[in-house]
Specification:
- The complex is a heterodimer of chains A (about 210) and B (about 750).
- Chain A is built from seven helices and nine strands, in the order βαββααββααβαβββα.
- By secondary structure, chain A is an alpha/beta fold.
- In chain A, a hairpin with a 2-residue loop joins β7 and β8.
- The model of chain A has no long low-confidence stretch (mean pLDDT about 95).
- By secondary structure, chain B is α/β, with parallel strands linked by helices.
- In chain B, about 30% of the residues lie in helices and about 15% in strands.
- Chain B has a seven-stranded mixed β-sheet, sandwiched between helices.
- In chain B, β1 and β2 form a beta hairpin.
- The relative contact order of chain B is 0.16.
- The chains are: A alpha/beta (about 210), B alpha/beta (about 750).
Chain lengths: ~210, ~750
C-alpha cells in the first residue's frame, strides 16, 4: 500500500550537518545504484560548516519539463516529477540548465537525465523516501503537516519560491524560521545573504 | 623479530587498503536478499539499529530499521556503507606467517598450524621470562561476551597481569571521573532526556561528525526552546548554530568549568538543598573555585568574560538541563579533572537523576560501554569489579573455579605495555581489535616497540598496519559474522545478530581464543559452544557487581529492544535513568541515590594545570586531533570502503586564515606540522572555523599520513588516557609534495 497522501516532504536546512548520509543512501537505490540524486552543497567551507541538502522540489509546473524539447519529463498524478523517459530523452541538457534549483543531473554514460523521483519504489509500498529515513539530523523529513508542526515549533513550511520574475509552487516544503514572517522564499535575494552561524572572532579573547 | 618483512608499499599492494564499491567493482548488490537481519551498526557507540540484507552468505546492502527506538531508521554515512566491508578483496580468509619471500611479506598457512605455533611461542616466552612477559591488547568494538573472554583468557589461561584495551584511548577519563563522583561508570540518563532539557551543554564533542544521531536529540531540544551551549576550539557543525559558542583554548577546560561554578556560587544559582542532602565535598570545591574569577577564567581559557558569564547564567538558572562531553575534554593529561569539573557544575545545579535532568559521556567505540565493564581493563574484573579488592577477587575466582591466589594482580595500561616492551619486560604480544601503530600517540615509538618483540600475533579481519609487523596473523571475524551483546552510549544492552558465516578459514574470535587455550593444554574454562553460553557465565560473574547483567537475557533484549543495566533479576525491567528515587543500587541500599555506602555523590576539587607540553618560541602552535564523519578510528575498516574514502580521502591540516597568512600558506598547499616527536606533511585547508592559535588534523590514517607521529604520549595520572587533544607544534609551507603523494592512494 502506498504512503497516505497527507505525507509530505520537508527540507529543514538549519538542521543539516553536512554528513552526506542522504547522498550515500540515495546512491544505494536499486534503480540508480552508484548515482546519488541528491546535491549536498557546502555554502563556503572557508567561512562556515554550513551545508544545504538539495533534493528535487517537485514543482507544480516543472521548468525542466517545460523546456524539454523531447517531452521526456513527466509529472505523475500525485505530483512527482520523474527522471526523463529513456526512449525520449535526447540528453540535450536543457533541463539541467533551466531548473532553478539545480536538481537534474545529466548522466553522459547513459545519455539520460536523472533526478530524484522521491523514491517512487519506496513510497509506492508504504515506505518513506530513503534520504528522509536515514537523515540523522532531521534536515530531511517525511511525514504529515501535523507532525512537522508539532516537532518544529519555531519554523513554518513554505512551498513558494521566487527566482527573479519566476514564482514557483512546489510539492516539497522548505522549513523557514517563523521569525522571518514570509510566505515566499526569495531565492535570488538570498544569494546575497552571508552564511548563518557562529563567528570564531565573537567570543575569543583577543 | 617483528620488523616489517618487506617494504610497507609491498604489503599495501597485496593486502590493501583497497577500495570496495557497491556496483561494478565487486558484487551485484541489487539482487533480492535471501534474508534481512535486524542488528546494529558495527561502528560507533550510538549502536544504531539497522537491517542487513543477506544473499548467498554475503551482506549485500541495508534497510533502515525504523522500529528501533534510539535511531528510528536514521543512519550516518558509515552506517549506510558499512555493509561494503563484507566480501572485501582485502579480507583475510586464512592464517598467515611472516615471510620476506612471499608477496606482501606474508604467506598463508593452515589455521591449526598457526594456532599451534602461537601456543608454542606463548609457552616458550612465559616459561623463559615469566607469565607477565606475554601481554594482551584487546578492543572495545568486540561484543561483551568476547571482552569478558579476553579478560578471563589473560588472567586464567595465560596468568598474565598485562592485559589492557583500546578503551584506554577512549573512555577511561570519563569512567574514572564517574566512579569518583557517582560511584558508577555509566551515562546517567537515556538520550530521551535530552529534548526535555532547557539547556544542553556540549563540551568537547563534535557531535555531528562523531555521533551524528545524537544531533537529532539536540536539535529537538532546541525546537522545544532549549539553549544549546558548545565548548570547542572549532566551530563544528553542531556548534555552528548553537546559542552560545565557547571557543576554548585546548587543554583549559578545568578553568572554564571552575569559572562557571564560581559564578553560580556568587549568584546563588546552586541547589543548596540537593547539595546538603545528596552530596559531600562541596565546601572544598567552593573554596577552590574562588580564585576562578571571570577575569582569571577568561585569561586562561581564551574566552571572553561576557561569554563565560552568559554560560553561567543560562546553566545556573535552568530548571532542567543535559550536560554531555566526549573525547574533547577527556583526551588530556588532566582528562579526569576536566570531567570532574563538569560534574561539579551538574551536582551544584542539583539537576541529575530526574526526567530532563541529565549527564552523559558520549561513548566512542561500538562497545565502549560494555567493553569497559567486564574485565579486559588492566585493573578490573567482570561487573565493574576491582582486581585489587579481595572480595571481588574471591567472587570471580569462584565463578572461574580457581583459587584467588592464582588470579594475577593489576597490570599496566596499554601505553605502558609498550614501555615495558622497551625495557624488555614484555617479550610477546597478542592483539585483537586494536591498531596501536595508528591509534597510539607518538606512534613511531610504537612501531619500534613492535620491532622489539620476540613474538607478535595479531587477530584481524583485514591486515591492519599493526599486523604488518606480526609474526602470525589469525583471521578473525567481522561484527556481522557473530552474535552477542554490546552496550550503547546510553547504557542500553542490545543484541548483535549474526548475518553470515566467516569466509574461508576465518573464525569467530572467541573460537580462536579457545583454540589457543587448547593449544596451551589449558582448555578448562574455555569450552564454550556458543556466545550464549559465554553470556550466561558473564551474567553470573557480573551478579552483585555494579554493572549487574544477571537479569538480562538475549530474549529480554530482543523483546524490550534493549535492556539498560543494572538489571539484577529476571523480573527487573532494567534501569534507563540512574540515581532515581527507589532505583536499584546495591551499594547505597536505600541510603541515597548515588553508588556510595552513604548514597551521596562526591564533589571533587579539580585543579587546573596547563597541558603537558605548552607552546613556546620553537613550537608556537597547539595541535588538536579528532575524527571526520566518514571515517572511524584507525580507519582499518572505513579506509577500505570506497564511497567513504571519496567523501574524505586524505587528512588535511585545518588552520585559520590569520595563521595561514602569517605562514604564507594558501588553501590546498602542502604543509608540514612538526613536533618534538615527529612530523607529518599534509594539504592545508584554510577555514575560519578554528582558533587562530590552534591547528587540527584528523587521525584515521597510517604511515606518513598519521598525525599520531606528532602527538604526545603524555597521559593522565589517574586514567592513563593520552593527551591527543593538545601538544605544541610548528607549521611550515612545503614547496613540493611529499614522497607518498606519488606512491600511495589516498586511503593507504
Amino acid at each position: 500500500m502506498p504512503v497516505p497522501e497527507n505525507h509530505e516532504f520537508f527540507i529543514d536546512p538549519g538542521r543539516c550537518i553536512g554528513c552526506q548520509a542522504c547522498v550515500h543512501a540515495c546512491s544505494e537505490c536499486d534503480t540508480h545504484r552508484g548515482h546519488s540524486m541528491i546535491h549536498l552543497d557546502f555554502v563556503d567551507r572557508a567561512l562556515t560548516t554550513q551545508t544545504v541538502p538539495v533534493i528535487c522540489m517537485h514543482c507544480d509546473s516543472p521548468t525542466c519539463a517545460e523546456v524539454c524539447p523531447a517531452d521526456a519529463i513527466k509529472r505523475s498524478e500525485d505530483g512527482v516529477v520523474q527522471t526523463a523517459r529513456k526512449p525520449r530523452c535526447i540528453a540535450c541538457n536543457n533541463c539541467v540548465l533551466a531548473c532553478p534549483f539545480g536538481v537534474p543531473k545529466m548522466k553522459a554514460d547513459f545519455e539520460l537525465m536523472m533526478k530524484c523521483d522521491m523514491c517512487y519504489d519506496r513510497t509506492s509500498v508504504g515506505k518513506k523516501p530513503m534520504c528522509a529515513t536515514v537523515c540523522p539530523s532531521g534536515a530531511l523529513y517525511f511525514g504529515t503537516r501535523d507532525q512537522i508542526e508539532s516537532l518544529r515549533r519555531a519554523a513554518t513550511p513554505i512551498n513558494q519560491f521566487r527566482f527573479g520574475e519566476q514564482l514557483i509552487h512546489t510539492k516539497v516544503h522548505m522549513m523557514v524560521p517563523k521569525s522571518r514572517g514570509r510566505e515566499i522564499v526569495d531565492v535570488a535575494a538570498a544569494l546575497f545573504e552571508a552564511p548563518v552561524g557562529q563567528d570564531m572572532s565573537l567570543n575569543i579573547l583577543q | 623479530m617483528a620488523t616489517l618483512p618487506v617494504s610497507r608499499l609491498e604489503t599495501i599492494q597485496r593486502f590493501g587498503p583497497h577500495l570496495s564499491y557497491p556496483a561494478g567493482m565487486r558484487l551485484d548488490t541489487a539482487e533480492d536478499p535471501d534474508k534481512v537481519v535486524k542488528t546494529h551498526c558495527c561502528f560507533c557507540g550510538q549502536q544504531c539499529g539497522i537491517q542487513l540484507k543477506v544473499k548467498d552468505n554475503v551482506v549485500i546492502g541495508f534497510e533502515p530499521w525504523e522500529e528501533f527506538p534510539f535511531n528510528q531508521g536514521m543512519l550516518c554515512p558509515k552506517g549506510v556503507r558499512r555493509y561494503l566491508q563484507g566480501a572485501h578483496p582485502d579480507r583475510l580468509t586464512t592464517a598467515y606467517r611472516r615471510d620476506a619471500n612471499a608477496a606482501g611479506g606474508f604467506s598463508p598457512m593452515p589455521y591449526d598450524a598457526a594456532v599451534r605455533r602461537v601456543a608454542e611461542e606463548i609457552d616458550r616466552i612465559q616459561s623463559t621470562h615469566g607469565a607477565d612477559a606475554f601481554a594482551v591488547l584487546s578492543g572495545a568494538s568486540l561484543t561483551t561476551e568476547k571482552t569478558y573472554l579476553m579478560g578471563k583468557f589473560a588472567r586464567m589461561c595465560l596468568r598474565t597481569a598485562n592485559i589492557d584495551y583500546n578503551g584506554r584511548l577512549c573512555m577511561v577519563s570519563a569512567g574514572a571521573a564517574n566512579k569518583k563522583a557517582f560511584g558508577i561508570d555509566r551515562s546517567a540518563n537515556p538520550w530521551s532526556d535530552i529534548p526535555k532539557a532547557e539547556v544542553v551543554l556540549i563540551a568537547g564533542s563534535n557531535v555531528a561528525e562523531c555521533s551524528p544521531i545524537t544531533t537529532n536529540y539536540v536539535w529537538q531540544a532546541r525546537e522545544n526552546g532549549a539553549k544549546v551551549i558548545v565548548v570547542d576550539p572549532r566551530i563544528t557543525p553542531i556548534a555552528r548554530t548553537c546559542d552560545l559558542f565557547l571557543p576554548v583554548k585546548p587543554g583549559r577546560d578545568v578553568a572554564l568549568f571552575n569559572g562557571i561554578l564560581h559564578l553560580m556560587i556568587e549568584n546563588g544559582w546552586i541547589d543548596q538543598r540537593f547539595i546538603e542532602q545528596f552530596a559531600v565535598g562541596f565546601d572544598a570545591v567552593a573554596e577552590h573555585v574562588r580564585q576562578w574569577t571571570p577575569r582569571q577564567t577568561a585569561e586562561v581559557t581564551g574566552i571572553t568574560e561576557s561569554a563565560i558569564r552568559q554560560a553561567a547564567e543560562w546553566w545556573g538558572q535552568a530548571k532542567s538541563s543535559f550536560l554531555m562531553h566526549a573525547r574533547g575534554i577527556e583526551h588530556h593529561s588532566h582528562g579526569v579533572y576536566n570531567v570532574l569539573s563538569t560534574i561539579n557544575i551538574v551536582l551544584a545545579s542539583g539537576r541529575i537523576g530526574r526526567e530532563g535532568c541529565g549527564y552523559a559521556t558520549i561513548t566512542g567505540q561500538a562497545n565502549g560501554q560494555g567493553g569497559r565493564e567486564h574485565g579486559q581493563k588492566c585493573d578490573q574484573l567482570p561487573g565493574l569489579r576491582d582486581i585489587e579488592n579481595p572480595e571481588h577477587r574471591a567472587y570471580i575466582a569462584k565463578i572461574w573455579g580457581i583459587s584467588p591466589d592464582d588470579l594475577p594482580g593489576k597490570g599496566v595500561d596499554a601505553y605502558e605495555i609498550f614501555r615495558k616492551i622497551d625495557r624488555g619486560e614484555i617479550r610477546g604480544l597478542l592483539s585483537i581489535c586494536f591498531n596501536p601503530k595508528v591509534s597510539l600517540p607518538d606512534n613511531n615509538f610504537i612501531g619500534r616497540m613492535l620491532d622489539k618483540l620476540d613474538f607478535y600475533v595479531a587477530i584481524d579481519f583485514f591486515l591492519s598496519e599493526s599486523a604488518h609487523q606480526a609474526d602470525i596473523v589469525l583471521p578473525g571475524s567481522l561484527q556481522e559474522e557473530d552474535e552477542g551483546v554490546v552496550t550503547s552510549a546510553e547504557g542500553r544492552v542490545i543484541k548483535i545478530n549474526k548475518c553470515v558465516d566467516p569466509p574461508g578459514e576465518a573464525q569467530q574470535d572467541w573460537r580462536i581464543i579457545q583454540d589457543i587455550a587448547a593449544g596451551l593444554g589449558r582448555s578448562r574454562g574455555f569450552t564454550f559452544n556458543e556466545p550464549r553460553e559465554i553470556f550466561d557465565e558473564l551474567r553470573r560473574a557480573s551478579a552483585g557487581g555494579i554493572a549487574d547483567y544477571a537479569g538480562i537475557t538475549y530474549e529480554k533484549v530482543e523483546r524490550q529492544l534493549g535492556v539498560f543495566w543494572p538489571c539484577p533479576m529476571d523480573d527487573h525491567p532494567g534501569t534507563p535513568r540512574l540515581f532515581e528515587h527507589g532505583s536499584w543500587n546495591p551499594v547505597a541500599l536505600g541510603r541515597g541515590p548515588f553508588y556510595f555506602p552513604d548514597g551521596k555523590a562526591r564533589f571533587n576539587v579539580a585543579t587546573y594545570t596547563p597541558p603537558a607540553e605548552d607552546v613556546d618560541a620553537d613550537y608556537p602552535l597547539m595541535l588538536t586531533t579528532g575524527r571526520v564523519v566518514s571515517h572511524f578510528l584507525s580507519g582499518a575498516q572505513t579506509r577500505r570502503i570506497g564511497p567513504l574514502v571519496d567523501q574524505y580521502p586524505e587528512p588535511r591540516l585545518e588552520l585559520h586564515p590569520q595563521l595561514a597568512e602569517q605562514l604564507s600558506i594558501r588553501d590546498g598547499d602542502w604543509a608540514t606540522v612538526e613536533s618534538r616527536r615527529g612530523s607529518c606533511t599534509l594539504r592545508a585547508q584554510v577555514v575560519r572555523t578554528i582558533r587562530p592559535d590552534t591547528v587540527f588534523v584528523p587521525y584515521h590514517w597510517a604511515g606518513a599520513k598519521s598525525i599520531n607521529q606528532v602527538t604526545i604520549a603524555a597521559q593522565d595520572p589517574i586514567s592513563k588516557i593520552p593527551e591527543y587533544k593538545v601538544c605544541a607544534v610548528r607549521v611550515r609551507r612545503e614547496a613540493s609534495p611529499p614522497a607518498y603523494a606519488q606512491q600511495l592512494e589516498p586511503q593507504q
